[in-house]
Amino acid sequence: MQFHHMAIEVTDLDRSKKFYQLMFDLDVEQYLIFGDEQIVFLKRKEWRLELIQSSSPPSHSPYVHFCFQINNLDETIINLKSNKIEPIEGPYEISNGWKSIFFHGPDQEIIELLQIKNT
Asked: Which of 112, 109, 24 is nearest to 16 (CA)?
């Protein structure tokens, strides 16, 4: 297992993208559309930051989650469910071929598990 990315919800995708590019020397890796969300992945070496702008502004403190890239999403879901850990969202198949699912951690932190198409 390896760390894949951290994500935050933003109110202005372009403003946030420019800020992280300028302040942290991140490059645009890719843009995605997922439901009503516009997403940009910024990257520096192997570290990624996902910025998410929804059509409706966040109604709470910024949404943050972290993501682990895994080899087999189906096996991992079975293992987690056998330990009575149920998903809070997903599984989803994203337009770029990735598959993801979201779970709560012990303190209600949000953990995404991601299988990229080449694994």
From this structure: 24
Q: Report strand pairing: 64-69 vs 110-115.
A: parallel
CB-based contact 20:51 (threshold 8 Å)? yes
Instruction: Parse the chain into domains and list their residue ranges.
Output: 2-115
Longest dimension (CA), the chain: 45
Per-residue pLDDT of 74-116, as tens digits, reads: 999 998 888 888 999 999 999 899 999 998 887 677 889 999 9
Residue 55 binned pLDDT confidence (cut-offs 50, 70, 90): confident
Tokens (6 digits) for 19: 């800020």
- Assigned token pair, 62: 């910024």
Superfamily of domain 2-115: 2,3-Dihydroxybiphenyl 1,2-Dioxygenase, domain 1 (3.10.180.10)
